[in-house]
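Protocol step 4 of 6: structure prediction from sequence.
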Amino acid sequence: MSILITGVAQPGQLGEALAQSFVHGGAAVTLLARDADAVRQRAEELRALGGHASAHVVDLTDADALADVAAAVAREVDGRLDALVLAAGGFAVSGPVDTSDGTGFHRMVAVNLTTAYLATRAFLPLVRAARGAIVYFTSAAVLPDGSPAGLAAYAAAKAGVVALMRAVAADEAPHGVRANAVALANVRTAANVAAMGDGARYVEREAVAEIVRWLCSSAARDITGQVIRVGR
């Protein structure tokens, strides 16, 4: 099973746990991130665990660079990916819209929505070849019972990810590709613990990884176009 995961660079973050979970399950993983030293270190750690892992350095907002990486990955995985897991993203509090910074809005859209769109476009032919799965990440804040107060830029970008997922699910159904999104509450990552302390209510990274692996498996072959909430 060949899996490509974006946003696997810094230790203690969700991408690291996703990659470890897939490797423990016997999958070969391809990691993409912008930080060259960090993404290569994560791949080395996975290989030390006995897994098969490769790393590619790319700016996920650069369509031309992504096209080059997609061509290289295609050669590595014999033209097919069983799953594309789009974990790259970022979070920032923008405050009320009337006092928010437009630069911050554009950054949230770029790191959360643009990266997901361009990576989907670049790797979709490989996922089609395997009739595989795509998993996106959104936020519980954009769900009907969520609270996006103070998070207009982040919430708008993550709502866009949901719309993108649903479009891909509809467009790709004839090709056998499934697309779903995981809507996360607070996950116990190194960054979140540093910001909010160890006593906050968290979803464990490993629990999220289990759900993502299930969405990428044949057990979820009839699930597409859905948003799965994880955490409270």
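Step 5 (inspection) to follow. The first strand starts at residue 2 and ends at 6.
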